[in-house]
C-alpha cells in the first residue's frame, strides 16, 4: 500500500510535468520520456494491485484455517474437561469406598469388644454361681452335722427321758427350726440359680442378634464389592473393544492411503467385493491380536478370582483389596488415554 501511494504521487508529479512540458515546444523530446515513465509507473501500479489482491486472498484463507484450528482446540478442551470430570468422580467414588470400609472395620471392632465384654460377664456370672453353690453346700454340710449332733443328743437324752423331758422338747424344737432353715436355704438357692440361668439366656440371645446383624452387614459389603468389580471389568472390556475398533478404523484409513484408488478398485473388482470390504479383509487374520485378547480375558478372570479370594479370606484384607481395585482403575485410566489418543489421530 505504501508503494502504491508512492507510485500515485509520482504519477501526479509526472502528469503535472507533462502538462507543463506541453506548453513549450522546445521540451517535446523530454516529454516523450516522461510519458514512457508514466506508462511504466502505471504498469507497476497494476502489478502492485494484483499482488495486493493475492495477499488479501491468502490472508482470508489463513484466517479460515486459524478459525478451524481454534474450533478443533475448543473441541479437544471440551473432551479434556469431560475426562477430568470423570476422573474426579472416580476419585470421589474411591474415597467413599474407603470411608465405608473404615466404618465397617470400626463396627466390627465395636462388635468384637461387645462380645468380649459379654464373655467376661458370662464368666463372672458362672464364677458367682459356682461360689453360691459351694456356699450352699457348706451350709448344708453344717446343717447335716448339726442334725447328726442333735440326733446324737436325742439318743442320749432318750435314755434320760424322765430327767430331761424339758431339754428334749427344746432339742426337738431346735431340730425343726434347723430343718426349716435348710429348706429355706434350698428354696433360695434354687430361685437364685433359676434367675442366673434366665439372665445368661437373655445375654446369649442378645449376643446372637448382634452377631447376625454384623454378618448381614459383611454380606452386604461383599455384594457391593463384587458388583463394583464386575462393573469395572465390563467398563475396561468396553474400552478395549473401542480401542480395537479405533485401531481398525485407522488401519482401514492407512490401507486406503497406502494403495492407490485404481489399485483398490482393480483388486475389489477381481474379488467381486467393495473397497471397504477389501481393506477389512487386509486387516483380518491377526493371530497376535487374538492371542492378546485371550490373554487379557484370562487376566480379567484371574483378577475377579483374586477379589473373590480376598473377600473370603480372614481379616484383615482391606489393604490388599484396595490395591487390587486401584490397579484396575489405573489400567482403565491408561486405556482411556490410549483411546483418546487414537480418536485424536483418527479424526
Automatic annotation (TrEMBL):
Residues 1-33 are annotated as: Disordered. Residues 1-17 have a biased composition (Basic and acidic residues). Signal peptide: none annotated. GO terms for biological process: centriole-centriole cohesion. GO terms for cellular component: centriole; centrosome. Coiled coil: none annotated. This is CNTLN protein. It comes from Grantiella picta. The gene is Cntln_0.
Amino acid at each position: 500500500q505504501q508503494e502504491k501511494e508512492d507510485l500515485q504521487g509520482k504519477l501526479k508529479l509526472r502528469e503535472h510535468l507533462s502538462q507543463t512540458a506541453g506548453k513549450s515546444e522546445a521540451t517535446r523530446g523530454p516529454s516523450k520520456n516522461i510519458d514512457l515513465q508514466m506508462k511504466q509507473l502505471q504498469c507497476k501500479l497494476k502489478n502492485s494491485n494484483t499482488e495486493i489482491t493475492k495477499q488479501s486472498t491468502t490472508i482470508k484463507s489463513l484466517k479460515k484455517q486459524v478459525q478451524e484450528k481454534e474450533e478443533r482446540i475448543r473441541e479437544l478442551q471440551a473432551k479434556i474437561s469431560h475426562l477430568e470430570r470423570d476422573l474426579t468422580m472416580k476419585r470421589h467414588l474411591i474415597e467413599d469406598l474407603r470411608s465405608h470400609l473404615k466404618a465397617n472395620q470400626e463396627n466390627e471392632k465395636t462388635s468384637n469388644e461387645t462380645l468380649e465384654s459379654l464373655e467376661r460377664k458370662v464368666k463372672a456370672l458362672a464364677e458367682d454361681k459356682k461360689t453360691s453353690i459351694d456356699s450352699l453346700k457348706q451350709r448344708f454340710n453344717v446343717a447335716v452335722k448339726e442334725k447328726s449332733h442333735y440326733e446324737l443328743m436325742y439318743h442320749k437324752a432318750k435314755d434320760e427321758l424322765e430327767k430331761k423331758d424339758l431339754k428334749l422338747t427344746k432339742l426337738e424344737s431346735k431340730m425343726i427350726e434347723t430343718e426349716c432353715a435348710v429348706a429355706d436355704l434350698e428354696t433360695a438357692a434354687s430361685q437364685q440359680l433359676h434367675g442366673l440361668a434366665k439372665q445368661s439366656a437373655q445375654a446369649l440371645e442378645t449376643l446372637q442378634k448382634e452377631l447376625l446383624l454384623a454378618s448381614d452387614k459383611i454380606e452386604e459389603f461383599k455384594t457391593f464389592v463384587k458388583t463394583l468389580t464386575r462393573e469395572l471389568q465390563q467398563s475396561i472390556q468396553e474400552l478395549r473393544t473401542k480401542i480395537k475398533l479405533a485401531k481398525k478404523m485407522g488401519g482401514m484409513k492407512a490401507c486406503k492411503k497406502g494403495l492407490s484408488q485404481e489399485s483398490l478398485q482393480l483388486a475389489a473388482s477381481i474379488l467381486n467385493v467393495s473397497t471397504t470390504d477389501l481393506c477389512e479383509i487386509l486387516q483380518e487374520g491377526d493371530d497376535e491380536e487374538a492371542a492378546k485378547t485371550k490373554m487379557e480375558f484370562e487376566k480379567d478372570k484371574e483378577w475377579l478370582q483374586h477379589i473373590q479370594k480376598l473377600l473370603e479370606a480372614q481379616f484383615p484384607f482391606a489393604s490388599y483389596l484396595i490395591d487390587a481395585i486401584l490397579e484396575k482403575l489405573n489400567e482403565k485410566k491408561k486405556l482411556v488415554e490410549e483411546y483418546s489418543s487414537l480418536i485424536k489421530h483418527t479424526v
